[in-house]
Amino acid sequence: MKLAQRVTQVPPSMTLAISAKAKAMKAEGIDVCSFSAGEPDFDTPEHIKEAAKKALDEGKTRYGPAAGEPKLREAIAAKLKEYNHLNYQPENIIVTNGGKFSLFNLMLTLIEAGDEVIIPVPYWVSYPEMVKLAGGTPILVPTEVSNGYKITPEQLRQATTEKSKLFVLNSPSNPTGMVYSPAEIRALAEVVVEKDLLVVSDEIYERILYDGAEHLSIGTVSPEVFARTIISNGFAKSYAMTGWRVGYAAAPLELIQGMTKIQGHSTSNVCTFAQYGAIAALEGTQEPVDIMLAAFSERRRFILDSIATIPHLSCPQPNGAFYVYIDIKETGIDPLEFCNILLDKYHVAAIPGIAFGSESEVRMSYATDLTSIQKGMERLAKFVASL
Asked: Is the peptide bond before 40 cis (omega within 30 degrees of 0)?
C-alpha cells in the first residue's frame, strides 16, 4: 500500500512515543519515573466534572455548532478581555479539539505551498510538522541559551523574506519553560508590524508562571499588532483537562470563518458536554489553578536544586510551564542515547532535545508527584556518575 507523501514527510511524535514506552514498562510492573509527558498529574477539578455531568443529564449530547457552543465562545471572549486585555467578540472565537487542533486547523486554513513560517528553536514538536502537512516551509531559527532560548527581534527580522507569512510565538515555552518579558514581546511586535507578518501566540501555559514572571499577549501591544494576531489556547494544562480535548483560537473574523469551514469538514463540533465543563472552568472558582501552581512551584524548586548538584549538567531557570531543559553536552553522550539508557537501565523517562530541534539538551517535565521527582533525580545522578 502506498501512503500519501505527506505522511512520509513527518516523523511520529517522539514525546508521545517515549511516554507510551514508559507506560508500557509500568504496565509490566517496572517502577518507572516518567518525566516525559507534559500532563499535570492532578485530577480535573470537581466543579468542572460536575458541570459536564449536569450537561449530560440535561441532554447536551447532540451535534453543536462547528465553531463551538455559543455560551463557551462568550465565556472565552470574556476571559480574553478580562485576563488578557484582548478585545475579541464571540464570533472571533473557534472552539477546537484541544489546543493542538487550533494550531493544525490554523495551518490548513492559512498556509499553502510557497509560504514560510518562522519558528524559533527549540520548538514544540508539532509546529514544523503542522506547517509541512499544510504544504508550507518551516523556517527554523536557532536561539541561544545565553538569551534564554528566546528569539531576538534582529533574528526575526533577518529570518523574514517575501515568502514569510506567519511567526510562531510560544510563551511560556514548551520545551524550555522560558517566558518572554513584556519588553521582549513589544520589541518582537515592532518587527511583526514592520515586516507585515501574522503571528500565532501559543499561550497554553499562560497561567503557570513563577517568581513574578509576567505574561503579555502580543496582541495587546497595539491595534496594528492585534490585527495580525492569532491566539491559540486551551484548558489542558491550567485545569488538568488533557483528555477532555477542548481548546480554542481567537483571530480576525475572516480567519475564524475559514477555520470553521475546515472544522466543519473534519472534526465537526467539539464534544458537547465537555464544552460545558470548559465553561465551568472559566466561570467557576480558580482556586484549583492556584493549588496546582503551588505544587508545580515546589517541584520546580526541588528539580532545579537537584540538577545543580549533578556534575556535567546545567539548566537555565525556567519562569513558566512545567519543564526543565537540561544541557548535557559535557557528558559527551548524544541526547537520544542518553535518554534511551536512562529509560532502559535506570527507568527514568525524558525527551531528547532532537525532538525539539536542538542537539545537546533533554527535556524533563515536573508535572508529576514530588516522590517520583525525588526518586527520578537520584537515578539521574547515579546515571551521570556512571559515565
From this structure: no
Q: What share of the chain is helix, strand, coil (3-state, %, to 5)?
A: 50, 15, 40
CB under 8 A, 24+ apart: contacts of 328-334? 328/360, 328/361, 328/362, 329/360, 331/384, 331/387, 332/387, 333/387
Structure confidence at residue 127 (pLDDT): 97
Decide: pTM greater than 0.90: yes
For every residue of 51-62, DSSP letters joined together read HHHHHHHTT--S
- The structural domains of the chain, with segments of one domain joined by +, span 5-44+287-386, 62-283
In the structure, what pLDDT confidence band is assigned to residue 19 with cuts at 50, 70 and 90?
confident
Cα dihedral angle (153, 157, 159, 161), rounded to 10 degrees?
Answer: 160
Task: Output DSSP code: residue 221.
Answer: S
Spell out the CATH class of 5-44+287-386: alpha beta
149's CB contacts (< 8 A; 6+ apart) are 120, 122, 143, 173, 176, 178, 316, 325
E-assigned strand segments in 198-307 = 198-202, 229-234, 247-250
Q: What is the largest CA-CA distance in the chain?
A: 60
| Residue owning grid cell 520548538 | 123
Cβ within 8 Å of residue 60, ≥6 positions away: 272, 273, 276
pLDDT of res. 290 = 96
Q: Which residue has the cell 509546529?
A: 127
Q: Report, as an integer, the average pLDDT of 322-337.
A: 94
Domain 62-283 has CATH 3.40.640.10: yes
CA gap 45, 195 in Å, rounded: 43
Query: What's the CA gap between 61 and 140, in Å, rounded?
Result: 43
